[in-house]
C-alpha cells in the first residue's frame, strides 16, 4: 500500500483501475489494443490518483524544469488574450510553457480546482505557475502568480484597477442621462468582481442615485449565468434603461436577451461590459466596455513569475494595471418617454 507521501506508481494506477500494469502502460503511451471501457477506467484512476508518467520522472532528475505553467479553469476569449501576453514575456527566455485547463469550455466551477491542478504541476512538471482567476488562496511548493486573485489573497498577483474601470463605466451611463442602471455581477470570491460592484455602487452614490438592490443580478462570469438575470431585469414592469455587466461574456448575452425580448440597443437599452475581448468590436452594435488590457495582465504575470523562479524579483508583489473606457455604439441617452 502506498504511503502518505510516497509517489503514485503505475502499479497503483493498475490496482485502482483493476487492470495490469502492461495495460496502464499501453494507455499512457497511446498503443492500440485497449478497449474504450478499459481506457476510461485507467484514465479515471490516473485522474483520481494524480499520476504523471515519464515527464515527471525526467524533471525530478533536474534541479529545474525550465517549464512554467498557466492554469485556468476554462479556455475562453479572456484566457486566450492573457496567454498572448504570457507568450510574449516568455519569448527567448529559455522557459517553455505548459497550459492546464479543464476540457469543458463553460463547465461549472468546483471549489478547489486550482489546488488540484497545481498539485499535478508544481515542482515536478513546472518551476512555477500562473493561475488565472482562482477561487481561493493559491499555495504551492513553487512560485505562483495569480491573475485576478481571490479576495484577501496574499499571493503575488496582477490585476486591473477594477474599481476605477467600473466607476468610469457607470459614470458614462450617468452622463448620458441614465438613472435606472442594472448590474450583473461576477463571481463574488474574486477581488475583480467585488471591486467592480463597489465601483458601480460608488458611482451611483456619488451622483446622488440610490442603489436599488433589485437591479443587481448575481452572475459568476460564466456568460450563460447572465441569461436568466438579464431576462428577469428586462421583463420587469419598470426595466432598467441600461445594464452594466461585470464581464464582456455576460454583456454579450445581455445583448442576445434584449434582442430576443424586442429591445433595441441602444435605443431602448444601453449595455456596457468589462474586459474588451475581441468579440466586443465585432458584435452589432459594438459593445461599449472597459479595457483592462488582458494581454498586459499576462505579460506582467509571466515577467513576475520568471523573476520569482530565478530569485530576481525585487518589485512589489501586487501589480495593479490601469483601465480605460472604450465607447462604442451600444450606449446612448435613454428615451425621454417610457417604452410601450
TrEMBL record:
Domain of life: Bacteria
Classification via InterPro entries: HTH_LacI (IPR000843), LacI/GalR-like_sensor (IPR046335), Lambda_DNA-bd_dom_sf (IPR010982), Peripla_BP_I (IPR028082)
Keyword terms: DNA-binding, Transcription, Transcription regulation
Protein transport keyword on record: no
Record's keyword annotation contains DNA-binding: yes
Residue stretches making up the HTH lacI-type domain: 8-62
Entries under SMART domains matching the protein: HTH_LACI
UniProt protein name: LacI family DNA-binding transcriptional regulator
Stretches that traverse the bilayer: none
